[in-house]
Amino acid sequence: MGLISHKNRIILLLLKGALLVLFVGLLGYGVGYFFEKKKYEVSISSPGKNPSILCLRVEFPDHKMRMLDLEWKTKLTRLIGQANTYWKDQLYGTFQSFQEPKISAILTLNEPADAYLDDLDKIYQDSAKAAKAAGIAVEDFDHVLMSYPSVTETEKAWGSPGKIWYPGEIIEPPKLVHEIGHSFGLGHCALEYRDSSRIDPKSPPSTDPWFMMGEPSLLFFTPLPLPMRFQLEALTESQVPLLKREPGKKSETLRLHDFRKSPQPGQHAGYRISGKDDSTFWIGYLTGPEETFDAGGLFPVTGLVVQRSQQYLVESYPATKEKHDIYPELLPKRLGLKKGEQLHIKSGKFTVSLIAEGADEDGHAWADVVVDFGIS
Ligand SMILES: [Zn+2]
Question: Domains along the chain?
């Protein structure tokens, strides 16, 4: 808009695109995939009882971990401590922490590393056997983390309900936080770029660098999206009310509070709107990075965000114009509607507008939003 010439705008756009490619490329260093489709009843904590976690250090006869045992234990304990802080913060204290991790001695699997490369289930089965021989029953634990020497060049980590595969050489805390999310039963976040209904946890469409269950960043603790807070029962239905489409009612003005903080009685962390095919649209509001766990200030999500959830996939709706070449568009937009902006969700048949922003006496930020069902 305005002062920048067309040519300069193109150069600027290319530059920003290149920056983001670099950024995403760095992120691409390690993705964890959620690959179990079956419905998993998640219990992140039962009253008075924190979930237990077992950490198994497993090695292959022909491939040992580079790290010394004490160093590994120290690192893992620190990573789990950081994960505890993240999940407690994002789930408003409904998750407190894991129990003191049970950490195994070094267990050696029967077969050479090559036999396990692409077979995570085999790693789990044989790790469980090795643990049993050492007097540890994996069934006694809510979550089992297997730490083993990196056998692939990319040092990928994985998670599925109750299980985490985490090569011992990985040191990025956000990545463990992401895999723990899968262990809790969460799927993935994707960027909205084609309004798709594609749900395939095995190969997430395009990972979302803005939220934790998207592409896990190497450095930043991105926020947990609104639908996933609800999925893990940190929010109740009345804290995220369902908006009904009623005949004659064209639009509604709503106040919602920044969902990074727990809503006080009577406050709403967001709103839900039913979509097609069992999907739900979530309207949420986020303000700037002022907490410990955030997008580090480099790429914070601020403003109004609409997210569509279906099964294990959460798609975020920024105000993108291009369907495929979104990155240059996203970067200046920073994902999130600003005051005065409007977003039309075609597949949901509604429009949202952010009309006012403010904060309560306690500093909890709010936004007034108009949802219009009258535009199709
Ligand atoms: Zn993942």
Answer: 53-185 (3.40.390.10), 226-372 (no CATH)
CA of 155 to the centre of ligand 1 (A): 14
Q: Does residue 223 contact residue 212 with C-beta atoms inside 8 Å?
A: yes
> What are the structure tokens assigned to 314, written together?
């959460």
> Exposed, middle or buried by CB within 10 Å (0-12, 13-18, 19+), for 215?
buried
| Pairwise CA distance, residues 359 & 369, whole Å | 14
CA of 182 to the centre of ligand 1 (A): 7
Question: How confident is the model over 76-125, as pLDDT tens digits?
Answer: 999 999 999 999 999 999 999 999 999 999 999 999 999 987 788 999 99
pLDDT at 30 over 80: no
Ligand 1 centroid to 216 CA: how many Å? 8
Share of the chain above pLDDT 70, in %: 72
List of E strands, the chain: 53-59, 102-108, 143-147, 158-160, 163-165, 188-191, 242-243, 251-257, 271-274, 280-286, 303-310, 313-317, 342-345, 350-359, 365-372
- Confidence grade of residue 152 (pLDDT, cut at 50, 70, 90): low
Distance 202 CA to ligand 1 centre (A): 9
Bridge partners for 53 per DSSP:
143
What six digits make up the tokens of 310?
């279906």
Residue with tokens 């975020």: 316
Tell me 106's DSSP state: E
Could you tell me the distance, in angstroms and rounded to a whole number, from the CA of residue 33 to the centre of ligand 1? Answer: 4
Counting beta carbons within 10 angstroms of the beta carbon of residue 264, is it exposed (0 to 12), middle (13 to 18) or buried (19 or more)?
exposed
Output the CA torsion sign for 324, 329, 334, 335.
negative
What is the 186 CA–ligand 1 centroid distance (Å)? 9
Q: Is the pLDDT of residue 201 over 80?
A: no
Is the pTM higher than 0.85? The answer reads no
Range in 19-28, 48-57, 252-261, 294-303 with the lowest mean pLDDT: 19-28
Distance 251 CA to ligand 1 centre (A): 37
